Every structure is written in C-alpha cells, then in structure tokens.
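Sorry to interrupt, but I need a hand with the structure work. Could you write out one complete protein record for me, on any chain you like? Could you add the entry underneath, on a fresh line?
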Amino acid sequence: MHSKCLQNVNLEMRQCSLVKGNRSVTVAALSNPTQAVASAPSTSSSSAPLMLRALRGEAVERPPVWMMRQAGRYMKVYQELCQKHPTFRERSERVDLSVEITLQPWRAFKPDGVVLFSDILTPLQGMNIGFDFNHKGPVITDPIRTLEQVKRVTRLNAAESVPFVGEALRQVAEAVGDSAAVLGFVGAPFTLATYIVEGGTSKNFDNIKRMAFTTPDMLHLLLDKLADNIADYCRYQADHGAHIIQIFDSWASQLMPQDFDVFAGPYIKKIITSFKSTHPHIPVILYISGGGGLLERMAACNPDCVSIDQSVDIVDGIKRIGSGFAVQGNMDPGVLFGSKASIEERVMDVIKKARGQGVRHVMNLGHGVLPGTPEENVATYFEVARTAHLRW
C-alpha cells in the first residue's frame, strides 16, 4: 500500500440525525464543504502512479487521465471477444477474461487509471441476493420487498463469494506496475437498493419509492446492510491491488435533495468513514450520475475526490464544493463523436479551467464513454490530455 499524510485541520461539523424507527443514527456532515481535508504528503514518491500522486496532493507535471467505462463496449477487440464469450457474467467473473478486458484500453491508449472490468452488482451473490443479466440489463432473481427478505441479506465475505475479483485485481496490478493506478469500484447503497427492490432497471422507481415513503424502516435496514457490506468490499479490493476506489451512484439523482439526505448521503458517508478507518491512505472518488444538483451533498460525504458530471461547468462545480477536494471530470462523452479539433479544444478547456482554480484534477468524462465512439477519437482524447502540459 502507498502512504500519504493528511493535514491536521479542524473541521466545523454539524450533526444530521437520521431516525430509523426508534433508533437514531448520527451522521457527521461538513457545515462548510470548502473546509474539507486536503491531501498533503510530507514526501514525494515519484515512482507511484501519476493518478495516485495527483490525488495525494503531490506536484505532478500534468493532470492524470482515464475514462469511465473505458474497458469494453466501444472497442473492436472487446466486441470480438464477446462473440466467443457472449454472457456478461462470464466476461466479468472469469479472471482471465476480466483481466484481458481491463487491459485492452491500457494497451491501446495508456490511460493513467485502469479500472477493473466488473459490475456494481457483482458482490450481491455474496449477500444471498441472486441476479443475472439479460439483453436489457440486470435481473434480480427475487426482488426484495418484505422485511423477511431484507433480514435474509447476509454479511459479505468477498474472499469466499467473489474471489475472482481479488485475483483479477492482483493480476492487473502486476501487469501495469507503476505505469497506471488500478481502480476498484463499488456501487452506492441507494443505487444497489434500487436494483434489488425494483428487480432490475426502472424508469419510475415506483417500488423503492413506495418502500421509502411507506415502510422507511425496512429500506433503512437494507441500506444499512448494504453500506456495511460495501465498506468491506472496498477493503477487499484495496487489499488485492486497488490503489483507488470509486463509488458509483447511478440513481441517487432520482431523489429530491431532502430525500438524498435521508436515503443516500448518510450511507455513502458511512462507507467512506468505515473504509477510511482501516485504509486511510487509499483515495476514494465519489461519482453520482446526473448529480449536478447534489455537489455540496457529495462533498459532505467527505470523499477525497468529487467526480463532476457534464451538467455542471467545472469552475462552478469547484466553487460550490471548495478547493479542498480533488475533482474529476467532466467532458461530455458526446464530444468524442466530433472532430479531432473539437476534442482537443474541449479536453484543454476542462483542464485549463480546473488548473485555473488551483485544485487537484483528474481528467475524465462526465459519464461513461458511449457505445459506438470511434476508437481513433478516444486515442485523440488521451493524447491531448497526456500532452496537456505542452499545450497550456
């Protein structure tokens, strides 16, 4: 594991009380997100991956760059592999295939971050929650909608239930060495709960919102279990080679801000606090799809890095959360369908804006790279970002 020192600063806290039936869970949130802890290592470690050094707060020659969903769907080599291995679970759960897919974009584009090819639902099989994937997406075998079902959700033992994740991370870390940071990732509790309760993807989220507003105690029990399990899953990934953990929350933006404060934010914060209690030197990135209206609340969860989507100008986003956080993002992935000149212009626009605010920055998209994106345009994106220090 790599180490960093944290600044000793006094955080002014406010206490948000979350009531669950007859018990109260106290969640600490920042009263002023601009006062967040920033990384300030006492020594440099130039042999560490660039992205890890940047997130630690070390001086780096340029912003690191990677793309969400960079492994997979837009690459011809991946599409050819899918012809031989048509099921997503085989591709994500067979170590050799997961490692191969993870390394495909690293070989092609040399990103500074290499994210494991897996899925946020993968650990559910270790929680007594059956699932699979069809052509429309994930399908939960037995959607959870009763208290008895919630009680049957078990504690995750990742080493026993998903050992292929740890082995794949180990092999990826060995393959890339210090040339790139290895990213593990997890799903946030509310997003996992939406799949578990809805039975799969949903347009209206009627089942989970019915649970939230008619039997909230039951939903809180489920979210609590998920938060504990996901914190353990973060630890497992870090112990098997992940330099950085990213938390993905696909559906928290479907909540009103006041409901985010009850059903999403406290459980994200619980994961981060629990994980950091045992792995304080592993940076955590928080990404919420469509989360432009939640940036201050994301900051209150106290990740090391706030990933900003393309719905927000990055300067406005930084001003809202303060300069104490690293930021990631936030080019529109649709730009990658444009000309090389437009890609160069937009990549440099994001990098210059973030640089002008004096914050740690990881260049990324505001969402995952889209299917059908030309690979030569992805190559342009990476080339421009890698040579940004020669262009500003």
